[in-house]
Amino acid sequence: MIKVENLHKHFGGFHAVDGASLEIAPGSITGLIGPNGAGKTTLFNVIAGVHSPTSGRVTMAGEDITGLPPHELFHKGLLRTFQIAHEFSSMTVRENLMMVPGGQHGETLWNTWFGRKRIAEEERALLAKADEVLEFLTIDHLKDEKAGNLSGGQKKLLELGRTMMVDAKIVFLDEVGAGVNRTLLMTIADAILRLNRERNYTFVVIEHDMDFIGKICDPVICMAEGKVLAEGTLAEIKANEQVIEAYLGTGLKNKEPA
Description:
six-stranded mixed β-sheet; about 40% helix
């Protein structure tokens, strides 16, 4: 579904992404791990159009999407969430979801004057869709709560719900576990697995919690210093000498036997 070829992103003399190449298979849940500063989030940002690449190429289902802005990628079904959730805090949880789909008829002055019936029908459909999403995510009891009052984990579920309002094809999740308690983290994991299995969503997940990665991700890709070091199952990644060296600063082969 996504193919990244020799991607580079430089900030002055700093090479945040330095020749990364990888492929994301449709229908997969791919984990992206690596030490802090490995270039994971920058890679996400380049793929999702937040930053333009210095060089390299990104394709989606064979179409060149290199450097396209986020709103164009949104309409192609590519969405990206952030480590810190971005909600409309003064609006309810349900209203946050209803805001997501673009091209709503109530957005134009002409339609507010002459298309009220169509706007009302559209709002009823969006309301039903939002309620279905909230029930799927098991947070329907929070539908009338102000989004700003939610816990960190509940906000992450709300962000996941936003992707469901537009039937995303591929979703890039950046550290969904940050600031989330273990119970809610497993709820998020279960929701991701259900979306993958029941609705064929493709996910790419940045996460430092290896239990979370192990529960939902296969394959796992490890980055370090802007490059892709290894790809495989989590067990294979954990046994990889280059990965161990990237995380610990020295490989097992250099350690003296106890």
